[in-house]
Automatic annotation (TrEMBL):
Keyword field contains Flavoprotein: yes
Boundaries of every Photolyase/cryptochrome alpha/beta domain copy: 23-160
Annotated binding of FAD, by residue: 259, 272-276, 313-320, 411-413
The family this protein is said to belong to: Belongs to the DNA photolyase class-1 family.
InterPro entries linked: Cry_DASH (IPR014133), Crypto/Photolyase_FAD-like_sf (IPR036134), Crypto/Photolyase_N_sf (IPR036155), Cryptochr/Photolyase_FAD-bd (IPR005101), Cryptochrome/DNA_photolyase_1 (IPR002081), DNA_photolyase_1_CS_C (IPR018394), DNA_photolyase_N (IPR006050), Rossmann-like_a/b/a_fold (IPR014729)
Cofactor(s), names only, from the UniProt record: (6R)-5,10-methylene-5,6,7,8-tetrahydrofolate; FAD
GO biological process entries: photoreactive repair
Marked site: Electron transfer via tryptophanyl radical: W345, W398, W421
This protein's encoding gene: CryD-1
Pfam families linked to this entry: DNA_photolyase, FAD_binding_7
Protein known as: Cryptochrome DASH
Length: 499
């Protein structure tokens, strides 16, 4: 596998590009922890004769969530981030660079580094949500006229500049957005970076101090937590593991061929790609996935609904990113982008705690919530079901659920998380999205023999398979009744839903 990964990286590198830049630039890594198809890194390299790569471990990411004060970054995502940094450092070293990791606010650290190495420009990937925008503003202010801050677009599959409309005029219906980009835009090819990116600035150690310092979890005020043995998939942070996963899922196991049929699963490593944690940290680019799926795999293996459907999902990811530009902070507000004021929300602590800890008495909810806490991951199907249960059956303020997800998810991304939650809560930008997921129906369709629930709640294994979703005895009492409980009935709301 290591050879396959290495040869794939080579394929996405160029033998030599011309470099005419002078002086020193700084590459400020943010949610783009990769080398392959990293345009900001390419620009930092091309515009200078030496580059200083930097990552700032911002203490604000390890504070608490906005309203309900959960740890903003849970231990598992923090561990994933640290692994990603170690891997990036290793891969940069292979290309003649290194990664300087410093703990502190970027607006304090970057001006010191600009001064120390005499950098003319800081390159970084452009972000779209308010916390990140504030940091960009603060960095600009703190470096003053000493250096420029150049922000480079790099998070989406379709480039911002290639959209057939401005983000202010983004369609409010996903299908309209998708059809418009599919017919009028094209996905740009991956940017090929040279195999050698060095040198680092002269006498770097003297100028910036210890280069080998990498923080550990306790430096971040967190305690290590083991990924549990029940987890079907061990997520390791970093570009190497991301490409390894793509090689395995597309090429070795050939799972891409059947993705559309398996993608609604909940149990196991291979029902879906599991790319999301690496996409969220930027260890893999969506354009790289596009090229592998839509160009290489379709040419060498097969082109079918499944090879298209991965792109369909990546367009959802793009869509939520662009929506964050259109709607700004309203994606974080209770009334959402559509300013829905008619709903009344509860913040009942007992109900919320039962949901959060997986003790509601509904095995399908409890199994999913236990999986989330234990592994930092939950399937897309599971996320939709637990979201619907929290907001529709319990009537709880959807932001409590969204913030718990923010704390736990390995793949937490503000746009995808809050975008999906606003849709699930019926306050999203698209008025047609109103989703009720009937638990009995979801259980019947997606876990008919109870193997998922009994995996995460082993005591259910003793029950006959048809009793695992509604144990009569020996399990917790149901904490609330369901709003609609006839499993045979198709509810208008969930039937309208795209999946
Ligand atoms: C309430 C809720 C909260 C969510 N929070 C997040 C989040 O914080 N971060 C996140 O990346 N995804 C989030 N999702 C979307 C989706 O559940 C995950 O992207 C998906 O489960 C990740 O698994 P996968 O990589 O195997 O996905 P696959 O099915 O293999 O899909 C491939 C990729 O497409 C993208 N994608 C798929 N579905 C969606 C979607 N509905 N919205 C946006 N992108 C999508 C992801 O990048 C994913 O990696 C959320 C969904 C819901 C319902």
């Amino acid at each position: 596998m290591a050879d396959a990964v290495e040869s794939m990286i080579q394929r996405y590198s160029s033998a030599g590009s011309s470099r005419n830049g002078k002086g020193v630039s700084i590459m400020w890594f943010r949610n783009d922890l990769r080398i392959v198809d990293n345009e900001a890194l390419f620009k930092a390299w091309a515009s200078s004769s030496s580059v200083l790569p930097v990552y700032c471990v911002d203490p604000r990411h390890f504070g608490t969530t906005h309203y309900f004060k959960f740890p903003k970054t849970g231990e598992l995502r923090a561990q994933f981030l640290l692994e990603s940094l170690v891997d990036l450092k290793k891969n940069l070293k292979k290309r003649g660079l290194d990664l300087v990791i410093r703990s502190g606010n970027p607006e304090f650290i970057l001006p010191l580094l600009v001064e120390a190495v005499g950098a003319h420009t800081i390159y970084a990937q452009e972000e779209t949500c308010s916390e990140e925008l504030q940091v960009e503003k603060a960095v600009k202010k703190s470096i003053g006229t000493k250096a420029k801050l150049e922000l480079v677009w790099g998070t989406t599959m379709y480039h911002l500049n290639d959209l057939p409309f401005t983000t202010a005029r983004l369609p409010d219906v996903y299908t309209q957005f998708r059809k418009a980009v599919e017919s009028s835009s094209r996905v740009r090819p991956c940017l090929k970076l040279p195999q050698t990116l060095g040198p680092l600035p002269d006498s770097l150690g003297e100028k910036v101090g210890d280069l080998d310092k990498v923080p550990n979890l306790s430096d971040l005020g967190l305690r290590p937590r083991e990924q549990v043995s029940l987890a079907a998939m061990q997520f390791t942070g970093g570009e190497t593991a991301a490409i390894q996963r793509l090689c395995e899922y597309f090429w070795t196991k050939n799972c891409l061929r059947n993705y559309k049929e398996t993608r609604n699963g909940m149990l196991g490593a291979d029902y879906s790609t599991k790319f999301s944690p690496w996409l969220a940290s930027g260890s893999i680019s969506p354009r790289f996935i596009y090229e592998e799926a839509s160009i290489k795999y379709e040419k060498e293996r097969t082109a079918n609904n499944s090879t298209y459907w991965v792109l369909f999902e990546l367009i959802w990811r793009d869509y939520f990113r662009f929506l964050s530009m259109k709607y700004g902070n309203s994606i974080f507000h209770l009334e959402g982008p559509r300013k829905v004021r008619t709903k009344s929300w509860s913040q009942d602590k007992t109900l919320f705690e039962a949901w959060r800890t997986g003790t509601t008495g509904y095995p399908l909810i409890d199994a999913n919530m236990r999986e989330l806490y234990a592994t930092g991951f939950m399937s897309n199907r599971g996320r939709q079901i637990v979201c619907s249960f929290l907001v529709r059956d319990m009537g709880i303020d959807w932001r409590m659920g969204a913030e718990w997800f923010e704390s736990c998810l390995l793949d937490y991304d503000p746009c995808s998380n809050y975008g999906n939650w606003t849709y699930g809560a019926g306050v999203g930008n698209d008025p047609r999205e109103d989703r009720y997921f009937s638990i009995p129906k979801q259980a019947q369709t997606y876990d008919p023999d109870g193997s998922y629930v009994s995996h995460w709640i082993p005591q259910l294994q003793e029950l006959p398979t048809d009793a695992r979703h509604s144990p009569k005895v020996g399990y917790l009492k149901k904490i609330v009744p369901l709003r609609f409980s006839n499993p045979g009935r198709t509810y208008k709301t969930s039937a309208n839903f795209r999946k």
